[in-house]
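Both lines are retained for reference:
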Amino acid sequence: MDNYSKVSNERSKERLKERRERRECAKEREENADKAGKTGSNQYQKKVNLELNTNFWRSKGGQATNAPAADCVYCYDNQHTIMFVCTVQQFEQGKVAVYNKKKRITTVAGCKPPQR
């Protein structure tokens, strides 16, 4: 029984070490991409980080401040006013990565999933 626990403990340590190395490599790749002028491993042109507990939807443009006339993706901000996030075209083509509470948004009502 003692040998089994030693082997099991060694394997778990090896797995933890591998996970740390993978995370460090991924972080290094992302930092290098940022230095090259590209954001993230998927090389998005724009990254939108939000800290809201809200839903996203598609609607005609011009409904919020600084919103273009094209169809846009909106959400509510902390004051419950409509906030422009990006255009539908940018979202569907994957030119914009939308993160809400550090989780990537890939589904918006009325939009196709973003291309990767």
User: Anything to note?
Assistant: The two ends are 49 Å apart (CA to CA). The chain has a mean pLDDT of 79. Strands lie at 46-50, 56-59, 72-76, 82-87, 96-100, 103-104.
